[in-house]
Amino acid sequence: MAQRRAQWSAALRTPVGALSAALVLLVLTVAVLGPILWQDTASAIDTDAIGQSASAGHLVGTDDLGRDIFYRVLVATRLSVVLALIAATIGTITGLVLGMLPTVLPRPLARLVISTVDIAVAFPSLLLVLSFAVILGVGTTGAVLAIGFALAPQFARLTHTLSTSVAGRDFVLAARVTGLSRIRLLFRHILPNIGEPLVVNATIGAGSALLAFSGLSFLGIGVQPPDYDWGLLLREGLNGIYLNPAAALAPGVAVVLAGLAFNLFGETAAGVIGLRTRPPRLPPRPVRKPGTEPGTTDDALLVVENLEVAFPRKSGWTVPVRGVSFTVRQGEAIGVVGESGSGKSLTGLAVSRLIEAPGSVTADRLDFAGTPVLTTPERELRTLLGTSLAMVFQDPMASLNPVRRIGRQLAEVSEQHQGLSRGEALSRAVDRMRAVRIPAAGRRARQYPHEFSGGMRQRAMIGMGLMGEPRLIIADEPTTALDVTVQRQLLRLLARTRTERDTAIILISHDIAVVSQTCERMLVMYAGRVVEDLPSAGTPRHPYTRALLAATLDLETDRDAPLAVIPGRPPEPDRVPNGCAFADRCPLATDRCRAEDPELTEVARGHRVACWHPDAPSAAAGAVSVAGGAK
Description:
single chain, 5-stranded antiparallel beta sheet, alpha/beta, elongated
């Protein structure tokens, strides 16, 4: 609370903040006190002062009944502002609901809602207002509903666009791994990150509603006599504008000042207001003892057979991951290497069940801890994946929710799956932060992601994975963009976690040297499939693996020799050629390589290769070993 008060104080000390506060205070004060102080004066009829222009007795003149226009403008403030706020609230709530529905509805219904909103947005707002006003009837109630419903489509479109942009971020995917339902994801992770633009547009909507309401009253289909608002007063003043311009100018100035107050206040509030919700306390969930999951075995934790990931396009399907098969045993560390676009990260996401429609994931078998991932209902799978599988994404800044404190984000796992109270979960989060060697963990837990360094954010991501009892950690490029010292610290942390907890690790990386030093086994991927599966201490047999090793630099690299490169570039996922995908870049390629795609075949115990010439020496790389690099 103290921090929030400090944020408001700082915002109100800025020029825009101070001006907006002054204008809002002025409008609200007049709205509250106007009818109390000046109602009688504004209603007093003076037949001796009919139609007078501005004077010392009447600052902006009188109307055709001799009533003081200035006091009538002050009294009309309450009705004008209240009706505008009610209409804006109706439009905001309706738009928010319509904009968020596609996030939780099945895809066909979501498309119907989006299409309806798009059609409504295509119509000019004024036309919508007038149409709704005619349908709902002339008068205050009809005008309020007409303006509210007319504001809703644009607010819905903005909400949907913002929520869609956030829904694909890594921290939302990480929250899905913890097992949060779509609705909880919506209120806990998506809405807080789109709160500021929504607040700005809601206040702008209030200003627009004020202007629209004044316009309807001016046209005679809004507020009806004997009530009056600024629009009705503007209409009355227009009749005598040539004799007394101030009679029309006064309500117009009031509309401008009130609209400016709403808009400027929205800019100020956006910096300090967030739509935050407190997660409810859940009852304790039954904790399954290790090894009692149905269908599990002692040595097979993750079984993947013929995994494919496909995405639709205009002329068919793109298959960036095709026919991937591997097994991860309890406590085993395997590395997945390959160039960008080889399908490494998509494989990790598919295993974690994080590929959403329209993407399609199929496999002959995809079992985690004995549970079939693809056929088990999401509700049943949520607890297993939330506590036994941890995902560490490449960019920790994008993987952590920027508007939530680090400690609260870590505590969310225990609140969801272990039934801990808010305080107990936070204590566990601090303990896990200490476990990953974050100094001053208690203080750091109250900080936001931007207050952490890159290495500390990555440690926090690993700590989040340790909030449960993970049996498998999938680390997707966890050392990217970190200096070598921090890289070494994080790799040691993963190794220590594996040793102490018997946790299996899948390390996805571009750096084959890092993988060879960290993992027991290595999967080499190219163009969406595994081309070699070998022990880290073994000798690679595939030309692509040899070329990757030859391109790796170390302290023994000859500085005078030209750097080794792999000519060409990998094929696009929708343009994979017939035969071996590496053939166009391979110095050993033959006609058979270009015509037939080799299967992954075992060439030695624990060593599989997809190549027609696994025994031929590579002209590009020479003799190589994974542990020692190019020789």
